[in-house]
Amino acid sequence: MSLTDFRVLVTRPAHQAEALCEQIEALGGIAIRLPVLEIIPLADRSPLSSCRQQLPQLDMLIFVSANAVEYGLPELLDEQKKLPVHLTTIAIGKKTAEALQAWGVSALCAPAPYNTEALLIMPLMQQVEARKIIIVRGEGGRETLAEQLRLRGAQVDYLNVYRRECPRLLTLPTSPPDIMIVTSSEGLQNLLILLAEQSWVKSTPLLVMSERTRNEAINLGFSAPILVTKIASDEGLLNMLVYWKTKGRFTQGKSPTEAR
Known about the structure:
Elements lengths: L6 E4 L3 H13 L3 E4 L4 E4 L4 H9 L5 E4 L2 H7 L15 E4 L2 H9 L5 E2 L6 H5 L11 E7 L5 H8 L3 E11 L13 E3 L3 H10 L11 E3 L2 H9 L6 E3 L5 H13 L14
Parallel strand pairs: 1-2, 1-9, 4-5, 4-7, 5-6, 7-8, 9-10, 10-11
Antiparallel strand pairs: 3-8
Pathway: Porphyrin-containing compound metabolism; protoporphyrin-IX biosynthesis; coproporphyrinogen-III from 5-aminolevulinate: step 3/4
GO biological process, one term: protoporphyrinogen IX biosynthetic process
EC number: 4.2.1.75
């Protein structure tokens, strides 16, 4: 695998981008760091205290991201730094499961491609009638998971522990990279805000982690190829970068979907 001299714009929040950037650079690529989201913990922590008191009555706790773990889990643990033994803990994504494991919490993880849809087809999620479930997330997240679980009879509540904002950046790129990585629809919108004066943005190839974000990019007027990872992980992103550098971008007559 090689990304020699391949310029990759990485738009993840600053505290979550470094591992991916280092892997890109280890393959000879040039990682351009441009965080388009800033993750801010919510000032009101009282919902966390209330949730902690409810844990003995809960059946399932779902963490949607590593940020949900970072800003939610510590205040949910008991004096022994543990969750109730009866509680089923679930992570959407490998990074989220790894973040839980770092606190000594074992969690079931959604299978590849590590997203909400994959979680919803797990056998565990089919018979959830009357189960009490809390989803730990950021403000304004997707509604799909809660909606589907409620349709299956579960009692679902949210625990919002952080919010996402568009950062104020002093230094912005003025020349196009070979490809841009954007991992959420909100990040895509912030990218356009931050680089509003750069004419090359919508004509630069884009790598995303879901069809939902790809469709959002199309609706926003992106004209370059839009690639979607087969697996929503750093490994999936790197594999697609290598494919695009070595083969994909030289394929003629392919649509963005076919060039995936």
